[in-house]
Amino acid sequence: MFCMFSEGLKGIVAAQTSISHIDGKEGILIYRGYEIGELNHMSFEEAAFLLWYGYLPTEEDAMEIKKKLNTYRELTPAMKAILHSLPEEMDIMSALRTVISSLGIPEYNWKPTIEQSLRLTAVIPTIIAYRFNIVMNRPLFEPDTELSHVENYLYMFTGKSPSKAVADALETYMVLTMEHGMNASAFSARVTASTESDLVSSITSAIGTMKGPLHGGAPSGVIDLLNEIGVAEKAENVIRKKLLKGEKLMGFGHRVYKTHDPRAIALRKKLLENKGGDPALDLALFVEKKAIELLAEMKPGRSLYTNVEFYAAAIMKSINLPSDLFTPTFTAARIVGWTAHVLEQAENNTIFRPQSEYIGKR
Ligand code: COA
Q: 132: burial class by Cβ within 10 Å (0-12, 13-18, 19+)?
């Protein structure tokens, strides 16, 4: 058998997929044959349908998905009780992972289905909003069945329907980040599914993986970076110091993209459409330019550019979503990609079992 060691599985093809394709050299991302730029104006429901079923929905298909997501939004009394009982200091991702894990009932047993996927996708925003409001000591809201998936997510934090511009900005973010090939959390979900474990276990694994700062946790790091810089004049100094200390700049670099991340470009475009003369956006644009310059100077040959997290942070900031909600919101989008991967894995399953190279004492 062919055996090769590759740290972090870099360059190893671990599965064949028809869900999405990333061309890291050209900066192209494709969902089921469609370039991400073409899908910019799709609703969450339509994009989810495309990823699950593999083709574009008709109007009736999209309505059906909307209706189903609506039906499965509510939390059971048991889920609410868990959310109330968790320690106050527990972060939202851990709370989400715990509640999702508690759904491990026979309904979700192998083999995974689109219906199971819909149920988990529908309930995740409710869990996030409910937990956030518990911890913040704010009133708790039930889902509004009249609203779309993304509108309802925003509604549940405040009990007020969001403006079209705000819902639109978040929807663009959620569509663009729904799926991204064999990233660490999708891999986790597939590894768990490959043992013929249930969908709930796969998604619990994926949420735990998403929580790490090198994957889903970067937007909060970007806000910290922008806050630390504060004004454009300080950008060069702060960035230079960080790079000299060997620190990584959050929101830059990508395992696969060795040019601009197409999702960052699409989000940047969206932000520029909706905003005019916003000082926070001006600062983000300046920091992006300066950081790319300094990364090229101090890390030559590494091809480090802005990744999706940089503009995700800018979009979340522009719609006033607190940073505690960045990674959970990313998760509420990525659940679609994870479930699509699990469904694909189940269709042509082989258990994942790589080897390790022993370097210890003999
Ligand atoms: N800031 C500064 N240097 C960076 C960097 C960053 N954001 N990202 C990579 N580098 C440097 C590394 O220090 C390393 O330099 P070296 O050759 O001198 O050791 C080189 O580029 C390769 O880095 P490596 O971590 O091996 O690249 P990777 O492809 O394995 O990592 C990430 C990809 C995303 C983990 C990495 O770029 C990173 O940590 N970025 C910041 C976190 C982030 O924004 N995550 C969100 C991803 S969507």
A: buried
Length of the chain: 362
Q: In this structure, which residue's CA is closest to atom 24 in ligand 1?
A: 255
Cα(301) to centroid of ligand 1, in Å?
A: 12
247 CA: nearest ligand 1 atom = 2
Cβ(253) – ligand 1 distance below 6 Å: yes
In angstroms, the Cα distances linking 112 to 7, 17, 361 are 31, 17, 43
Write the single-letter amino acid at 185: S
- The residue extents of the domains of the chain are 28-164+174-215+325-347, 220-318
Environment class of residue 237 by beta-carbon count within 10 Å: exposed (0-12), middle (13-18) or buried (19+)?
A: exposed
What tens digit of pLDDT does each residue of 284-301 get? 889 999 999 999 999 999
The Å distance, Cα 250 to ligand 1 centre, comes to: 9
Sheet holding 20-23, edge to edge: 20-23, 28-31, 34-35
User: Can you tell me which atom of ligand 1 is nearest the CA of 308?
Assistant: 48
Q: What is the model's pTM?
A: 0.88
- Domain 220-318: CATH superfamily is Cytochrome P450-Terp, domain 2 (1.10.230.10)
Convert the pLDDT of each residue in 201-215 to its tens digit.
999 999 999 999 888
- State whether CATH 1.10.580.10 applies to domain 28-164+174-215+325-347: yes
86 three-class SS:
coil
